[in-house]
Structures are given as structure tokens and as C-alpha cells.
Amino acid sequence: MKKILFVAFLFATQMVSAQDKSVKSGALNAYLQLKDQLVVSDSLAAKVSSAQLSKLLKDMPVKANHPDTLAKLNSAKAKIVKYAASLSKTGNINLQRQYFEGISAEIWPLVNKTKGSTLYLQRCPMTGVKWLSLSKEIKNPYYPKNMLGCGTVIATSN
Length: 158
Prior knowledge:
This protein is mainly alpha-helical. Helix content is 63%, strand content 8%. β1 and β2 (130-133) form a beta hairpin. α2 runs antiparallel to α3 (67-87). Residues 28-115 form the DUF3347 domain. Residues 1-18 form the signal peptide.
């Protein structure tokens, strides 16, 4: 009987862990979609992606080995949820980019250890704004008309 309970516990733990990774990966995908939509100035699609990002992050558990680190990660998560919710309520592309700047400033510690694809933390040297990308190629979501290629890779995950 103890063996059955132990196996059931391990299975449940693995299921929760898999769900956590799925939520984290879903949040990252929503963020990357949002970034791509801002590159092409699609404010309507950005509203949808930011609402999805907000919902997924609300459900995402945060784990850390140190209480101070956990507090910082939970604070970052709360800020991102707030920015994403605000972004989802406006159709003004310039205002959306301002909210995205807040999201991007906080998201790196939450997703940089996501298994799978390599992430690139990029920064526009003229303004200091940051964003994440799956590609080394720079596509600036803040100034796509005037400075689409302006930026550098400043960190890489994995």
C-alpha cells in the first residue's frame, strides 16, 4: 500500500511539474507573440496576446531556493501581470509599447531558464529598452519604422 501511495505521489508531482513548465512555456510564447505583433504594429493582436500573457502568468507558480529571490520573482510576476492587463485594455500602439517596456524589464528572470529554445535578451543602445527574442537578429518592437535593426544582444539563456 505504501508503494502505491508513493508511486501516486511521484506521478502527481511530475504532473504538477509538467503543468508548471507548460504554463511557463505558454507565457513565454504569449510574450514572444506580443513582441512580434508590436514589431508589425498590430495593436489588436497585441491586446489578445497581452491578455493571454497576463492570465498565464497569474497561474504560473514561482519557485526559488532563497526567500529573497522568491520575493523578487513574485514581485516581477505581479508587475508583468499588471502591465500586460493594462496593455490588453488599450488599442494605442504607443501606449502598448510603453507597457511592453515594463513587461520586458521584468520578464528575463522568470523565463531565462526555460528548457528548449535559446532566448536572446536584446537592448536598443539609443534608448536602453530591452526585449526577448528567439533569434539573434534584431527586430526592435519599440521603433519598427525608424530603427527596426537597432539593438544588440546583451545576454543569452541556457
